[in-house]
Amino acid sequence: MKKCPYCGKEYPDEATNCAIDNELLLDKSPQLATVEKQNEPYLVFPDYKWSASDAWKCLGTILVLMLVMVFILAVIIVASHLPHPIYQTNGFVYLFATIFLYAAYLIPAIYFARTKTFAVFLNGFGLDCKISKYAWFGVIMALIIRCHGHFYGWGKISTSEIVSFENTVGFARYFFLVPLLLLAPFIEEVVNRGFLYKAFRGSYSLEISMALLVVLAIITHWPQCHNSPSATFNLSVLTIVQCYLREKSGSLWDCILCHFAFNASLLFIVVFLS
């Protein structure tokens, strides 16, 4: 069987051109397809264009790596005879475990993005651009969303990092804030808006791509969202704002600054205003 590469209509082997658009037909035989695939050059970004297929593969890999990392961390804690909640009371241990998990989140995105040099990575993920005029829109929206969450109940809900920060003493307590203020805004934006959103946009519409990122945000923030409609709403709006920033600006720093403002405002409200 042969297939038209333009309209997708199939024809018998003896046909040469599509009857609809006169395009040259391609052989669909598995043997030829295998040969063609073997002869295809391995493209790298920017010659290689990201698609939804890359995003789904990345998410699947992240899920597997996260499960493996959690198992490894559990084995380390058990083998070291450390007290079970040590990651909640020791800032250094918590920071180490968080870096370990964030590595599993970041590495698949870099791999499937096919950015072979550091300069290409910066360019592809939007990290080689300065903060744009849209960044301040993102910061203002982040603060508005945070204030809305505070007045409707989410502001009274803290995160595990802030709870541990408040309940421990000494310099090590500040390690609990590093993931909240630095790692989460940077790494989550690099993966979510830097790669996944752009990959989805390579195949899907604006609305579908944003919706998928909203679902991802809710899943990854399930402890805050599962019993709080307000948290779910605020996080969804924030995600849409961040995707809008990525759509309008070539700079990922706009998204990172928006994310930082959102997280930092929670710390300010919970620790200094409560």
What does this structure look like?
Helices cover 67% and strands 2% of the residues. A hairpin with a 6-residue loop joins β1 (2-3) and β2 (10-11). The mean pLDDT is 86. The chain contains twelve helices and three strands, in the order βββαααααααααααα. Strands 2-1-3 form a three-stranded antiparallel β-sheet, with no helix packed on it. It has 274 residues and is an all-alpha fold. The protein has two domains: 2-39, no CATH class; 52-273, no CATH class. α2 runs antiparallel to α8 and α9 (206-220) packs across α11. The chain has helices at residues 30-39, 52-79, 86-89, 91-113, 118-124, 134-151, 160-167, 177-201, 206-220, 222-225, 229-248, 253-273, and strands at 2-3, 10-11, 26-27.
Reconstruct the topology from this structure.
Blueprint lengths: L1 E2 L6 E2 L14 E2 L2 H10 L12 H28 L6 H4 L1 H23 L4 H7 L9 H18 L8 H8 L9 H25 L4 H15 L1 H4 L3 H20 L4 H21 L1
In total, how many domains does the architecture comprise? Answer: 2
Number of helices: 12
Strand order of the largest sheet: 2-1-3
Order of helices and strands: EEEHHHHHHHHHHHH
- Biggest sheet overview: 3 strands, antiparallel
Structural class: mainly alpha
- Classify the helix fraction into a percent range: 55-70%
Mean pLDDT rating? 86
Residue windows where pLDDT falls under 50 for at least 5 positions: none
How much of the sequence lies in strands comes to under 5%
First and last CA, distance: 70 Å
Radius of gyration: 23 Å
What is the molecular shape?
globular
Total strands: the figure is: 3
